[in-house]
Amino acid sequence: MTPRTVQTTSFIGGRHLPSLRTYANIDPATGAEIGQVARSGEDEVDAAVHAAAAAQKEWRRSSPEQRSKLLVATGALIRANREELARLESEDTGKPLMQAYADVDVCARYFDFYGHTIEAYYGHQIPLGDDMHVYTRREPYGVTGHIVAWNYPLQLIGRAAATSLATGNCAVAKPADETPRTTVRLAELIHEAGFPAGAFNVVVGLGAEAGDALAKHPGIAHLGFVGSTATGSLIAHAAADRVIPTVLELGGKSANVVFADADIGAAVPSLVRSFTQNAGQTCSAGSRLLVHASVHDEVVEKMSRAIDAMTVGRGLDDPGLGPLVSAKQRDRVQGFLDEVDASQILMGGGRPDGLAQELSGGAFVSPTIVAEVDPSQRIFHEEVFGPVVALTRFEDDDEALALANGTEYGLVSAVWTTNLSRAHRMAHQVEAGQVFVNTYGAGGGVELPFGGFKKSGYGREKSIEAFDEYTQTKTVVMKL
């Protein structure tokens, strides 16, 4: 277990590495300090990359069967430590405890899924003639670097670590400044499962210091990043300077499109959950709601009732809605709301009423519906990353499609209709990496390729397709 000291440390080469420089880890529900985090930098990143490179020399020669056993063992350890991991995740992020439990379970599933599928991941034999033997191999890059966001720390680093290790790479991870603890704990469990020391390393610290050093380190052969489009652009530039591949999962402004023939009663729980889960801090949040004019009032009325029934509080108390990750993020969300006309805010729009006194310093924002949003407004086309939905009416299918595609993002979309032809047409024409019909984000997504169109990024995480992102093809041609 992680030593219960006041400092969350980097984990490099199978051991903890404290730092003389630290910064405060803040509980977003109360604003109180819950510990110190090592403020690692270039030296620690360099040590982590060298540890990974040393481990990878042998790890790349391991068989798929060996990797499979260790990945599945890691999944079992994650489940065995479910309670501890969930409480750490809830405390760091502010998310309700049940959501944190779900994140732990999904993290474990990534290790199971990639542990089981890596044994069936092959190259191809290419028939060029009886006198030629031609085949391809999928080979690891070497040391992969991973910089992940604070909204789903365990899920994001779990999928990256499991895929990287399954394909014979070794890895260095930089968790978000605000949420380092579960990533460090995961590194301990990976080591405990039997992976070589240095196979998976974690450097904690500030993004501008440790994150920047990792992105620019010459020993990193492949970069993965989850976060804002602005920062992703910087990561892509750093990778381009060294001509290394990247996988970028960036911002989103995803739309639920509700047609007149939709089953409104079935849709509303998903419509609400899509923008309030994790306090709306989800890249694939359904933060735009496009509704046919004929059912607009019914949708608003049913959503309002569902939101009124939602509890708000500290994540560890398992409310319906927890705080945002930080006061900084709360202020950013409030800034968007302050820009819109007060008459557009149908409900919410500020701090929730009735919070306990101990939560007075917490980063809370009420679930908010902003109505009659025009496509020219910033809240329509920019990512808010809070429990806020922008509601816009439409009159016909063409207008719905134009509105759905009317942002620079293209991560997820959902279509709510009972018309099969319309469902297929919209699914084909919407510009998004995932399109759901009469559901939203169903199934947890471990088996589903995930990634964006346009400024939502490129490359794919999750599913078997992720193996292709973490390996490179070698073609072998033999004259017989």
UniProtKB/TrEMBL annotation:
- Domain of life, per UniProt, equals Bacteria
Which residues are responsible for catalysis? E249
- Which InterPro entries does this UniProt record tie to the protein? Ald_DH/histidinol_DH (IPR016161), Ald_DH_C (IPR016163), Ald_DH_CS_GLU (IPR029510), Ald_DH_N (IPR016162), Aldehyde_DH_dom (IPR015590)
Q: Which residues form the Aldehyde dehydrogenase domain?
A: 21-476
Entry GO MF terms = oxidoreductase activity, acting on the aldehyde or oxo group of donors, NAD or NADP as acceptor
Supply the alphabetized keyword list: Oxidoreductase
Q: Which family does it belong to?
A: Belongs to the aldehyde dehydrogenase family.
Protein name per UniProt: Aldehyde dehydrogenase family protein
Organism expressing this protein natively? Brevibacterium senegalense
